[in-house]
Amino acid sequence: MAMNEKLDPELAMKLRDFLKKNHIDRKRIVIDVESETIELDPVEDLEEILSAPPDFTAEEAAQAIDNIRRSREEWA
Q1: 60 inside domain
Q2: Is 73 part of a structural domain of the chain?
Q3: What is the pLDDT of residue 13?
Q4: pLDDT, tens only, 20-60
Q5: Is 35 helix (H, G, I), strand (E, B) or coil?
């Protein structure tokens, strides 16, 4: 069960400054205190990818498909 606690305004400001200095511009992050890491919210990545309109020319799309096919062959 997720627990939400309001941050102290001073702590929130320090966290925002830290994230800005480290070029982290996500709205949602996970701070793992035990491993001392910050994880970016993967859901935000997926939503961003899915919401972006495709911007491929026909040639670029064909090239991307060829790259995917080659990668799959290499992995097999």
Answers
A1: no
A2: no
A3: 92
A4: 998 888 777 888 889 998 887 666 555 666 666 667 788 88
A5: coil
Closest CA relative to residue 37, chosen from 48, 22, 49:
22
Q: Is 17 within a domain? A: yes
14: pLDDT strictly greater than 90: yes
With tokens 């993967």, the residue in question is 42
Cβ atoms of 18 and 36 within 8 Å: the answer is no
| pTM for the structure as a whole | 0.46
Helix (H, G, I), strand (E, B) or coil at 17: helix
- The domain total for the chain is 1
CB neighbourhood size of 39 (10 A) = 12
Q: Would you say residue 67 lies in a domain?
A: no
Q: Which domain holds residue 48?
A: 13-53
Between CA 28 and CA 12 the distance in angstroms is 13
